[in-house]
Amino acid sequence: MKTYKNIYPKLCSYKNLELAFKKASKRKNKKFYVIEFKRELNKNLIELQKELKNENYKPSTLKKFTIRDPKTRLIRKSTFKDRIVHHAIVNILEPIYEPMFIKDSYANRLNKGTILALQRLSKFQRKVSSNGKLVKNPITNNMIKGYVFKADITKFFDSIDQKKMIEILSRKIKDKKFIWLIIKILKNFENKKKGMPLGNMTSQFFANIYMNDLDQFVKRKLKMKYYLRYVDDFLILHSDKKVLEKCKESIEKYLKTLRLCLHKDKSKIYPLYRGVDFLGFKNFYYYKRIRKRNFKGFKIRLKKMKNLYKQGEISKEEFILKVEGWFAYIMWGNTYNLRIKLFKDIEKFFKETIPKPKRTFMNEIQKKLI
Known about the structure:
The protein is an alpha+beta fold. It is about 50% helix and about 10% strand. Strand 1 (about 65-70) and strand 2 (about 70-75) form a beta hairpin.
């Protein structure tokens, strides 16, 4: 196995920190903390460089806040300066670990993401069902053959063992200073032994490194062809239910080596025709439905955006941009009627808040959303 030594100087280089700043400030140029840091960019990057080189860098306390979309999650946000350091770390580690990752790991990776994961699932459904072969006495044409093991890790980010994380990283990274910095990042957390803060970029990247051991086990040891993962949610599709039952047992045992365990209620084996609950959709063979929970979450966010617009805190353009992102995602499902209904709600809102809105304005919005 190839290992990497003396990579810390590359992390501390001005060129790497400047690139990290650009990535950390992407789509945030109007934020006050970015404006402040940019005002004396050269000076601030040199100071950060010195802190890292002299090994006296210390991350600031994480800012906590709760989001409900509608699932309640505790997010821990780093300061902008610390986010630059996170990007600097990932800039160095990504080229090392990316070739090691399996093809069907889709979270927090370049040229991957939710849409490609959903498309891959559709392909797996076709393969396992032999292009839509139906069960005996089907009620609908979606009642295809095959099974899915839908799995979820219990409290994934809070359960990650920090010592195990360092052990995994140390297999390839033999630079003591680099490991020192990663330990600093990991220990900047309430629990000094377990967990990583949900919200940090490094946490997202480290999660893929941590779970890569499981990916390799499923693909190489268990020889499961139709396996895909998105963070801690993963699926295995197979034509034989008994094969999946054996896989589940093996995975439960293997996860103990990673100090993780399967969520009892969310990790189940069931027929594909029931629809695979994955990435916000109920995925059937011929169509996809948006999950009620995700729709409810958007309705809550839409209400908040309406209030922000009324208070003058966001512009029309910002309002539409935020809505457009969600519409672009649900467009991958069979959601035309739902999108029409939501557009009419938004149209009504603008008519009530903008005196005689121009028809061309509403037509442009309709084109973007429908």
